[in-house]
Amino acid sequence: MTTEALQDATGGTDDTAELDAQLQDCVAQGTVTPTRARYAVNAPMLDMWADAHGDPNRVYREAAAAEAAGRSGVIAPPTMIQAWTMPQLPALAATLSQVPGYAPYLGPNGDETGEAKETAPPNPAAAVHRLLTAHGYAARAATHCRQEYHREAELGDHLVCETVLSSVSPRKKTALGAGYFVTTRMTFRDQLDRDVATVDWTVLCFRTPPAPAPTASASDAAPAAQPAAAQAEPAAPTPASGRSCRPLAKAPQVGDRTPVTTIPITPTFVIATAFATQDFYAAHHDADWTRGSLGRTGIFTNILSTTALVGGVVTDWGGPAARLLEVDLRLLAPNHTGDTLTLEGEVTAVDGDVATLSVKGLNSLGPHVLATAKARIPVQD
Question: What is the pTM of this model?
C-alpha cells in the first residue's frame, strides 16, 4: 500500500486550507531534531534481530566470521539502522492521546528529542503528527523508505540520529482513506561524528473510513466459529529456515537471480520482528486494536522488517563479504498473519564490483514490496 498505489488523489480543498498552511509552516522551520540512541550497538540486540528475521549472516554474530569477510569485527545489519533510536514501549504508551501507538519522532525515553524538555529545540515532525491527529488523521502506515549506507556500524558504536521534516503532501484520497504523506530525512552518525546512514522515510497519516454496519441477516446467518487446526499458527516459529549466506562463486552479471526466500507470516514472526526492530506500534502486535482502530483483519508486518528482508535477499545471495550500499523500497499490499511472503531479486546493473538488484515480494494480495538495492559484491575464491 503506498505512494504509487495510493496517490489516486485530490489535493487540499477549502476546508483544509488552514491545516495545510500550518503543516507547511512546520516544514519551513527546517529544524534539526537530534536523538541519541539509548544503547550502543550491542550483541544481544543483534542476536534478537537476526533470530527474528531468520538471517543466517554470521558477520552479525561472530568476530571470526566478520574478520574473514573483511571486517575488523562484528557489524550491525545496515538495514537495522532505525532500530537504535526508536522509542521504547512505555514512551509510546504515553503518547496514545496524541498519536495512537506511533511516535518514531520521539526520543527513546518519550521526549521529543532525547533531551530535557526545557532545553529541547522545536520538533516540526512531532508538531505535524500532533496536528494531523487532532484533525482526525490518526491512523499511520509507512509507505516508502530509502536507506543509504555510508559505513557499517560496529559493536560499541553509539549512534545519534538527526531528523529534519522534508515535506508534507497536500491531502490525498487513498485506498486506506484520505490523508497526508509525511516525509522526514534521518541522518545517522556515530560517536566520532562519522556518517553511518541516511534514511528518507514516508508515512501516510490518514482517516480510517467508518466500518459498514453489519446487516441482521448476515449476522444471524453466520455460523458459530469453530476452532480449526488449519487456522492455528505453526508450532515452529523459525520464519525462514531455508535461508543460507555463502560466498558468491562468480562475478555478478545482469540477469542473475537470487534464491527465492519464502516467509510464513505467522503471529510469532510479525511480533518478533516488530519488537526486534524496536517498533511498538500497536498494529504490529495488538490484533484487537488493529481491527478496531484501523479496520484491518489483524496485525501485519512493519516496514522496518520488510527492509531487513529485502536487504537479506541481497546478502544471502552475495555472501558474508557483501556490503549493502542502498535499499529503496515501496510498500503495497500488507503482510497480514496467515499469509506467505515470497521474495526474489534480479541483477539489473553491474558497475565494477557494485551490483544493482530489483527485489520483489509477493503475497496472496499481490505485490507487497517493490525495491531496488545496491551492494558491493567482492567475489571470493
Answer: 0.84
Residue 287 phi/psi, 5° resolution?
A: -65, -40
C-alpha torsion sign, points 42, 44, 50, 53: negative
- Among 47-56, 145-154, 174-183, 346-355, the minimum mean pLDDT is found in 174-183
d(CA 315, CA 307): 12
Extents of the domains making up the chain: 3-210+237-376
CATH 3.30.413.10 describes domain 3-210+237-376: no
pLDDT band at 96; cut points 50, 70, 90: low
Tell me the backbone φ, ψ of residue 85, rounded to 5 degrees: -120, 15
